[in-house]
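Table 4 source record.
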Amino acid sequence: MNTATLSALWLFKQVQLDVVILEVGLGGRLDATNIVDADVAVVTSIALDHTDWLGPDRESIGREKAGIFRAGKPAVVGEPDMPLTIAEVASEKGALLQRRGVDWRYEVEGETWSFRDTAGALSHLPLPQVPLPNAATAVAALRASGLAVDDAILSAGIRDAMLPGRFQIISDAPRVILDVAHNPHAAAYLAGRLKNV
């Protein structure tokens, strides 16, 4: 996996991308992607997964995931019930912690949703195909990065973003849905979505 990460980073450098979004493969602290001095670090959620590598509980897993935080850089956390270890690591590293429900929040408003942080509010955002908490966390990270994105482009990105293998409808007759949910947290989310099908 380290070779694949290094190869990808080399390719990104060759084509001189303006923005690169890297997903940690496992945990964070010891992941190969952690060699990058990221402008923004993001922890979307903390679930009991890979406990043999990351630790037996959410506090241990939170500490591992927070290993991607950097001094003086935003650390956006989308987990509403954030383990204390995330705040501890952010403080130890001098990261600028931005927590869901404290520093930023979102709210469903009928067929749309709104987002609010210290920079202001965005309203009438389209409901995404991906989990709304993840979309809101992505908006928080984008705003924390300081990158200027037109509201219409942001709305289109939210509306059109999808993840193959995550509630992916591959056939309507018969209805066939693919989802790679592989832990209790993801399975609970999938069960909720299936109730509305």
